[in-house]
């Protein structure tokens, strides 16, 4: 049997084990066996406990901090390359360090570019990821990148809500393109929040561009970290006469006091994917799985079938 026709093998990094199992189930397979040995100083070594020679393999793992998650992905890619896997696809539901995609002041790194080079050097021959913080990060890679949009998950849910007087909102100017894409699909109005930061994760000022009086507002963003922007935007919109405010965020980093902020905010609901595992549950957080999306795309990649429909907002 030609190597390209061998059944692909799926493996998951520790941080994405549950999502990996769900993807494998949707794919119609099981996760391959990986054992990770850990030294007393914290150094660790993943080991494939089955042959991958000549096969296509998918390694599933989000690279959110801490840095061990990225390191584990790199080590598994290197192990697969040295074990003579034929095609090695890094499946990154969340591509971490993506906010450092440019030099916004002197003497700082462009971390997203560095991570891209590290993944390729480690052995990745293809990248599959979802809702990058900036589209141009695809250009940091020399290997093929399949950049999926979580809108294929969120839009059906949003339509099921059947909200009257729906308005899509962006929590900042940078997300306006995403907001307009959602508004086009939902045939709704758009409003934009303009914010100024005192420093990272600290907002000094926020203004609303547009009218939300009597509207059911849905904020759309690629990630939620401290939830400071989202909760401040929700409070501002309710002050300006909105009927309700929900938020759609693909990647739920939810660091620091984020869970407490969400619970105390005027957000009616925070809708996320399971690209990053939740640290705790919340009555306001609704999780939609991205497992079927990734399984479908991985199957199409293996069978050389078009996946262009998964790129559309």
From TrEMBL:
- For the keyword Transferase, the answer is yes
Instruction: List keywords of the entry alphabetically.
Output: ATP-binding, Cytoplasm, Kinase, Magnesium, Metal-binding, Nucleotide biosynthesis, Nucleotide-binding, Transferase
Q: Name one GO biological process term.
A: purine nucleotide biosynthetic process
Q: What is its EC number?
A: 2.7.6.1
Q: EC class of this enzyme?
A: transferase
- Highest taxon of the lineage: Bacteria
Record-linked PROSITE patterns: PRPP_SYNTHASE
Q: Which catalytic reaction applies to this protein?
A: D-ribose 5-phosphate + ATP = 5-phospho-alpha-D-ribose 1-diphosphate + AMP + H(+)
Q: Which residues form the Ribose-phosphate pyrophosphokinase N-terminal domain?
A: 9-123
Q: Name one GO cellular component term.
A: cytoplasm
* CDD domains named in the record: PRTases_typeI
Which organism encodes this protein? Spongiivirga citrea
The identity of this protein, by name, is ribose-phosphate diphosphokinase
A Gene Ontology molecular-function term? ATP binding
Instruction: Spell out the SUPFAM superfamilies in the cross-references.
Output: PRTase-like
What the entry lists under Pfam families is as follows:
Pribosyl_synth, Pribosyltran_N
